[in-house]
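Propose amino acids for all 421 sites.
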């Protein structure tokens, strides 16, 4: 006999709060404190010069590049500026378009619009990431970049995306912000596109509180990013900005990472395998225990053995059932919600839907260079993606989860499934 659901007045499986989802942040300890203190004691928080410069940012960049298996990494002030710098280095600007998945983070769209280019929203598939089979229809002569976002802890099918992009000679940017530590066939995400970036903000898999990092194998692209993220110039050996050292001099953004965050980033990067393994093993256990329940379709993972494990995500047959199932699980004490609380940009982002300009002249939507100013962002234009997101639910799996947390999740899930499915 099915147990009475908490949402119907029954006793909830769990009343304790769910563990917080700050993967890197909850692994902070004396190592980060000592690394930061070393910089402070040296009185040298600026990366280019100081009383006793420790070169923590440079070391962090070298170690991150080695981890990815690429030639260059560049640490910057935030994930959002990392996106803007990378896009700017690849020529995104007036008269160009950038393809972005319908399920994304707002910063990806912000960067495109702030560079006066046009975001083109493309459909996602059951990975909750860009669908490579529908990508080609979005490519036009104005397409300057494909933004392959690895959302909610899991990889996009980036090999297939790159294959389509190469056919049309369009570069790919990998946004790894929500899935650092994920691998495909044993190789980290972030090394397959022309360029990649990751946010190091507090709720990411590794964190410096705020920050970002860019990576590429392309020497020219790296050199462009180097100038853009500073004051527009390259630095001389003494760390002073100097004109004439680079052919890529420009107008810079000013997004240099400081030495304290560089020091903390080095410690966090060393902890990344441990953080991800804690989430991945938990996710694999939960998928084994719940993935075969009739009426539950687990999110497709490009490489289940390499997934970061940050979420257990699944789909129901229809949106109504997903809504009921999510409400019932939350009543049982399990934080099951639509992807990002349902805030998929094509439906709940009025600035994009209404094409709010960023200049008094209406750019980018009415910019004379943009032939795609009639772009329509209404929900029906990404109906497949919206249907997937409406049928989807996900539960965060913090690396500090205990066996008791997992047992509560499974017990609540089975209890709700017995009644509703």
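Proposal:
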């Amino acid at each position: 006999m099915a147990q009475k659901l908490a949402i119907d007045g029954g006793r909830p499986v769990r009343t304790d709060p769910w563990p917080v989802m700050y993967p890197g942040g909850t692994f902070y300890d004396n190592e980060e404190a000592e690394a930061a203190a070393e910089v402070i004691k040296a009185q040298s928080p600026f990366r280019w010069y100081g009383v006793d410069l420790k070169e923590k940012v440079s070391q962090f960049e070298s170690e991150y590049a080695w981890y990815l298996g690429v030639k260059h990494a560049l640490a910057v002030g935030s994930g959002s500026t990392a996106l803007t710098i990378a896009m700017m280095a690849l020529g995104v600007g007036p008269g160009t378009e950038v393809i972005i998945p319908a399920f994304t983070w707002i910063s990806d769209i912000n960067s495109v619009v702030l560079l006066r280019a046009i975001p083109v929203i493309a459909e996602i598939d059951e990975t909750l990431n860009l669908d490579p089979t529908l990508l080609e229809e979005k490519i036009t002569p104005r397409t300057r970049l494909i933004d392959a976002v690895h959302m909610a802890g899991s990889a996009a099918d980036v090999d297939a995306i790159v294959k389509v992009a190469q056919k049309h000679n369009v570069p790919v940017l990998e946004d790894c912000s929500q899935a650092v530590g994920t691998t495909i066939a044993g190789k980290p995400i972030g090394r397959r596109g022309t360029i990649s970036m990751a946010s190091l903000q507090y709720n990411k898999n590794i964190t410096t509180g705020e920050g970002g990092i860019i990576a590429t194998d392309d020497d020219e692209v790296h050199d462009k990013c180097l100038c853009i993220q500073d004051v527009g110039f390259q630095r001389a050996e003494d760390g002073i900005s100097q004109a004439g050292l680079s052919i890529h001099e420009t107008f810079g953004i000013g997004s240099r990472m400081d030495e304290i965050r560089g020091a903390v980033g080095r410690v966090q990067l060393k902890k990344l395998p441990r953080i991800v393994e804690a989430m991945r093993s938990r996710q694999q256990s939960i998928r084994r225990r719940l993935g075969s329940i009739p009426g539950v379709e687990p999110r497709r993972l490009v490489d289940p053995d390499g997934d970061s494990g940050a979420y257990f995500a699944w789909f129901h047959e229809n949106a109504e059932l997903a809504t009921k199932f999510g409400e019932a699980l939350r009543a049982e004490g399990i934080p099951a919600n639509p992807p990002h609380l349902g805030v998929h940009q094509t439906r709940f982002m009025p600035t994009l839907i209404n094409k709010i300009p960023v200049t008094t002249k209406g750019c980018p939507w009415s910019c004379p260079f943009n032939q795609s100013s009639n772009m329509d962002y209404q929900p029906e234009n990404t109906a497949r993606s919206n249907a997937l997101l409406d049928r989807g639910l996900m539960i965060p799996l913090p690396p500090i989860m205990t066996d008791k947390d997992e047992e509560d999740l499974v017990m609540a899930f089975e209890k709700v499934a017995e009644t509703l499915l």
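The mean pLDDT is 95. The first strand starts at residue 72 and ends at 76.
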